[in-house]
Write a structure and sequence with these properties.
The chain is an alpha/beta fold. It contains six helices and eleven strands. The relative contact order is 0.14.
């Protein structure tokens, strides 16, 4: 499994995401082995001046790119303390602490009253396992038992958006259950729309195209 293999490296080490060096620590989802950071960074196309929140940043690569792209404020929240430390290391590496911070928390639990964002994004752990499975902290980057965390994200996310803000989810219908995400969104009064897609790299070992999903209030 790629996730297990990614932990056999010597830590810490540097890799690159869209040409920008990122340090990688142990027990964190690594962009060196696991695709996602580069295509989702391209699909998000963060514009200068926005307030950007990323759930589950891992190494912090996508959030750091948002800060480097000119976002006014970037916040990253991860439940894995190793990921929090890794994101902090990359904040310091790229000198973006004036506009970016990382907190430890479970989805939106680390937010303070009144905090809202123009874009909220999560490269969700779209690997489905049945409810009751207890993933390790590292496995949480890939597995969401019963899509319970995904439901919380869709349910709670809209209240943390600024007017006109976008609630986005990184996904792959090749290995995730898109129909379940769509059903959850419908039950929450939302519509799940695929707004961007990217094919996997030619040398990637699995045929796993990626999709960027936006949740919008259902009309009619």
């Amino acid at each position: 499994m790629l996730l297990t293999g990614s932990q056999k490296d010597t830590f810490p080490y540097d890799t690159e995401v869209l040409g920008v060096p990122m340090v990688v620590l142990a027990d964190v989802f690594s962009p060196k082995y696991l695709m996602g950071a580069e295509p989702f960074t391209r699909m998000l196309d963060v514009q200068p001046g926005i307030d950007f929140l990323e759930i589950g940043p891992g190494t912090g690569a996508i959030a750091v790119h948002a800060a480097l792209a000119g976002a006014r404020r970037v916040l990253a929240i991860d439940i894995n303390p190793a990921a929090v430390a890794n994101t902090q290391a990359n904040i310091e590496k790229h000198g973006v602490a004036d506009r970016m911070e990382v907190r430890q928390g479970d989805i939106f639990s680390a937010l303070r009253p009144g905090e809202t964002f123009d874009v909220i994004f999560w490269n969700v752990p779209f690997g489905y396992v049945e409810p009751g499975y207890e993933p390790t902290p590292l496995q949480r980057s890939c597995l969401d038992p019963g899509y319970e965390a995904t439901r919380r994200y869709i349910h709670e996310g809209p209240r943390h958006l600024s007017p006109g803000g976008r609630l986005l989810l990184g996904f792959s219908s090749a290995i995730g259950r898109l129909e379940l995400v769509e059903r959850i969104a419908d039950e929450e009064g939302m519509e799940a729309r695929i707004v961007a897609t990217e094919p996997p790299p030619p040398d990637f070992p699995m045929p796993m195209p990626l999709e960027l999903i936006q949740f919008v209030p259902r009309t009619g």
